[in-house]
Specification:
heterodimer; A: alpha+beta; four-stranded antiparallel sheet; B: 160 residues; mainly alpha; two-stranded antiparallel sheet; 5 helices
């Protein structure tokens, strides 16, 4: 009886681990920006609006919760602008996600110009299996000047 | 040598091959680009493999001792309990990418030319399940040992 209980727990662990990480990586692969061709051209209007759009798809077997946060940070910790969004992606579905960073023109000229030390910080957080398994990736990109 | 004596020796040899010989040979077969990626992620591959090999060698020794000890002896019980603990340590090494104390919470930092990639993976629930499995396995080992002692005791006597 005890042996069967142990076997059931082990089986649940293996299935949960495999299904959870399969879901996480399927969502992550479609949520992370591809290459240089996906870069956004920033127009210096007032205010400056920086769009960020992705269409993550959940090819896994479990529901996933994706949190995307895009920030412009100066001097390591001063947040100039930040925008966050959370979506729930059921298995087999694709959910578009649009973020917009709005920065006053004067601030944008200060931090998006040549020689600026500002950085883009993109945070992708994915949780699945009733929030029991999670994955987070924070990408910090320097050299934001156009 | 009887079959009962050969079986633990074979089990110990298989454990040694899988968890000592294979990790020892593994670095030679890892492609350089994958090796570089592992190094950039902050995982100390040598340390990770050394931990696996150490646990593998200990597990092989325990398997041998357990197999050679009689099922009614206290040595068998101690070896069975130690085997359960070593399987938990092995799981913690794997889920923590070499860091046992992280308890399944892996943190990796990768540096590129203009970008830093900070990755975290939370697999603590699997660690908790593994602890539960090991605790149940230890209880099962004790019950088996007790049962074997009761069966081996002369009629009318209850083993201490």
């Amino acid at each position: 009886m005890l042996g069967i209980g142990i076997m059931i727990i082990q089986l649940v662990s293996v299935i949960g681990f495999t299904a959870g990480f399969h879901t996480i990586f399927e969502v992550y692969n479609t949520a992370i920006p591809g290459g240089a061709d996906e870069g956004t051209q920033i127009e210096m209007t007032d205010p400056v609006v920086i769009p960020y759009s992705i269409s993550p798809r959940n090819n896994g077997y479990l529901e996933a919760e994706l949190t995307v946060t895009l920030s412009l940070v100066a001097e390591g910790e001063m947040v100039i602008a930040t925008e966050s969004m959370e979506v729930t992606i059921p298995p087999g579905e694709q959910v578009p996600l649009d973020l917009e960073l709005t920065i006053p023109l004067s601030t944008a000229q200060m931090y998006l110009g040549e020689g600026s030390n500002a950085e883009w910080v993109l945070e992708l957080g994915i949780t699945t299996l009733y929030d029991l398994v999670s994955f987070s990736n924070i990408v910090t990109m320097s050299g934001v000047a156009q | 040598m009887s079959t009962q004596r050969i079986r633990p020796v074979v089990s110990a040899i298989i454990t040694l091959i899988l968890f000592v010989v294979v990790p020892y040979m593994l670095p030679e077969y890892i492609p350089p680009d994958v090796n570089q990626l592992i190094a950039e992620s902050g995982i100390d591959l040598d340390w990770f493999l050394n931990e696996i090999m150490l646990v593998g060698a200990v597990t092989a020794a325990i398997t041998l001792v357990k197999g050679l000890a009689g099922k009614t002896s206290p040595v068998w019980l101690l070896a069975a309990l130690a085997q359960n603990v070593s399987s938990l340590v092995f799981t913690l090494i794997l889920l923590g990418a070499g860091d046992i104390l992280s308890l399944g919470f892996v943190e990796l930092t990768m540096y590129a030319e203009n970008a830093t990639n900070y990755i975290t993976m939370n697999m603590r629930v699997l660690v908790y399940l593994s602890i539960e499995v090991v605790a149940l396995s230890m209880i099962r080992s004790y019950l088996r040992w007790r049962e074997a002692r009761i069966e081996a005791a002369p009629p009318g006597r209850i083993p201490a």
